[in-house]
Amino acid sequence: TREGNTVTRQTEDYRITCRYEADPYGVFTRNDSFQNVSDKPLDVQCLRSRFVFDGGEYEVYTQFNTWQNESSGAWQKLNTAVTATGGSSRTCQDAVPFLALWNLQENRGVAFHLLPNATWQMSATRAGLSGKYAVTVVELGILNYNFDVTLAPGETLELPQILCYEFTNKTDMDCWKLHNYMHTHYPRRQMPVIYDTWMYCFDHISCENVIAQIAPAAELGVEYFFIDAGWFGKGKNWTKSVGDWEENTVTGFQGHMIDVAEAVRAAGMKFGIWLEPERANPLSDSVRNHP
Questions:
Q1: Residue whose C-alpha is closest to residue 269's, from 282, 279, 260
Q2: For 171-211, how does the pLDDT look when each residue is reduced to its tens digit (9 = 90+)?
Q3: Who contacts 139 (Cβ-Cβ below 8 Å, separation ≥6)?
Q4: What is the full DSSP assignment across 83-148?
Q5: Are 189 and 218 in contact (CB under 8 A)?
Q6: 131-161: per-residue pLDDT in tens?
Q7: Is 181 exposed, middle or buried (0-12, 13-18, 19+ CB in 10 A)?
Q8: What are the Cα distances from residue 146, in Å, to 44, 141, 149, 159, 280?
């Protein structure tokens, strides 16, 4: 059933609701939900949003993304299926939740942005149909692998939000539409000026070389003086302690970070340290004590 910009499908057990709207620049937002309307628990092991396009003459754009090799994208001919997944809490690790579909016959495409609330999956699949040459199906949503959720009666599961829009420029995919959408919905905030010690000598920090940077940073107008990796750990290989977040007494500031912090504040700046709360090394005390 359709009512305004809401499409609903309901069975005896569940209700699927798709809500969508378009902004003046042609950017569509789609929000799907899945609700258990039965009187018993309902197991869900696959849940994604679907778009169907006529024909099979398409190219697909995806991006690979990893440390120091970010946003490496390419087009490829869609012959059977193209899939991109993000399998960890780092939503842009290995792949980016962005996919574009280009119609080779009409020279126009559709860009899809997924805003993950879980590990995610995006795919474009060519499927043959009786009486037709083919259709192309784009699916976006929660990754199937290890996905097993039991919904109580009346409970609703929200899928990741999707932004999509048509484009005719294959180089930048009409990214101005996304920019206008973001500026309209998320007005720019005035961000503070931040200095990060990683840009000086990576993780090779000491009280002496960091304190020597404080006065020049303050003179330049820095508001937040930020200590990156190298301040924590139990020895020279701090990566083994990722997840513990305790000051290193062997390297780095050698237990004197408070002195650096006080010098930063005395210069009129705020003091910050780098943390990675979504990550823990298997050798860390945190993992060993709380497996």
A1: 260
A2: 999 999 999 999 999 888 888 999 999 988 899 999 999 99
A3: 48, 49, 50, 51, 121, 122, 123, 125
A4: EEEE-SSSTTSEE-SEEEEEETTTTEEEEEEEE-SSSEEEEEEEEEETTEEEEEEEEEEE-STT--
A5: no
A6: 667 899 999 999 999 999 999 999 999 999 9
A7: buried
A8: 11, 14, 9, 16, 20
Tell me the HSE value of 40 on the side-chain side, using a 13 A CA sphere: 3
Amino acid identity, residue 87?
A: G
Q: Distance between CA atoms of 109 and 241, rounded to whole angstroms?
A: 46
Grouping H, G, I as helix, E, B as strand and the rest as coil, residue 239 is helix
pTM for the complete prediction? 0.81
Which residues are bridge partners to 139 per DSSP?
Answer: 50, 123
Based on the number of CB atoms within 10 Å of its own CB, is 132 exposed (0-12), middle (13-18) or buried (19 or more)?
exposed
The closest alpha carbon to 139, from 156, 162, 157, 118, belongs to 162
pLDDT tens readout for residues 51-63: 999 887 999 999 9
